[in-house]
Amino acid sequence: MDFRDHDYFDNNRYIYSDYSGNNDFILSVQVYTPKTGNRAFVHYHDEYQFTLPVADIEAFLHVDRYITAKTNMLYYIPSNAEHGFTKDLKKVVFTRFIITKRFWEEVALKYVPGVKLDVPVEFPISYELKELMNLFKIECRKGEKNNESVINLYATMLCVQLMKDCRRVQTCCNDKKVKLNIDNVGEYIFANCEKDITLDFLAEALGITKYHFIRIFCKKMGETPHSYLIKARLSRAKTLLEGNQYSVSEISDLLNFSTPDYFSKAFKKNTGLSPQQYRKLSRQMK
Questions:
Q1: pLDDT of 65-108, one tens digit each?
Q2: Residue 241's CATH number
Q3: Residues 154 and 106: beta-carbon distance below 8 Å
Q4: Taking the alpha carbons of 268, 270, 273, 279 in that order, is the dihedral positive or negative?
Q5: Number of CB atoms found within 10 A of residue 103's CB
Q6: 6 and 127 belong to one structural domain
Q7: Are 163 and 189 part of one and the same domain?
Q8: Residue range of the domain that includes 87
Q9: 96-149: pLDDT as tens digits
Q10: Residue 95 lies in a domain
Q11: What total of structural domains would you count in the chain?
Q12: Could you tell me the pTM of the whole model?
């Protein structure tokens, strides 16, 4: 492994590279603060990219539309999608994450199975992502003194967090046109329990306030929307545990539990068994 931190025309590049294969870098976090500005440059590449403006960027091509890229917003650019500056700009300051297709897909398969991020989206950078980015850069600055296993962990965690944030936003975008009523909202929750379903989203889909939604949902279903959602996820978890495709940790992530520990506690409270015990028992009964 080769970890480098060097200046290039006043740019800081934090690169995690693996030269044992095709001489590809794995993950590059580049902070651009050019003194001379940026020339107009529209391009595309095989790698996945996230652009994070430190100051607003005018005339930014985000795949299929021209926008003013806003400060502290992340702009996701899928593989081989056109993007860049459509005119010469001065004092452009931004950070970009460049992730090779191979590393991205390896991380997705192992830690965020089933994720499909083929639509460009934008979203505010999360606190978790800021912290991971700083930890990654700090480790890269150590040069030869860095710990390979630590930087590999941070690079992987960065990708996982980017995928989760991006998937959450894409799910919300895809569901914006959903129209619900009190008679079918329970069915929707059960069928889409793996999504990041919020009270605000459900109330908006019904055209009522979230407080009114909670009242009528409790009256009809006999429990809160949150309790119903957790039960739906645990029901889905039982089916996944009866198979061998996913680990307990992966099932927790697939079903949008905040942590594997919370998933395990909720599962045991509901069934009297830990996820591992339930999986073992289900295998014995086959």
A1: 788 888 778 888 888 888 877 766 666 677 888 888 888 888 88
A2: 1.10.10.60
A3: no
A4: negative
A5: 20
A6: yes
A7: no
A8: 2-174
A9: 888 888 888 888 888 877 677 777 778 778 777 888 888 887 887 776 666 777
A10: yes
A11: 2
A12: 0.56
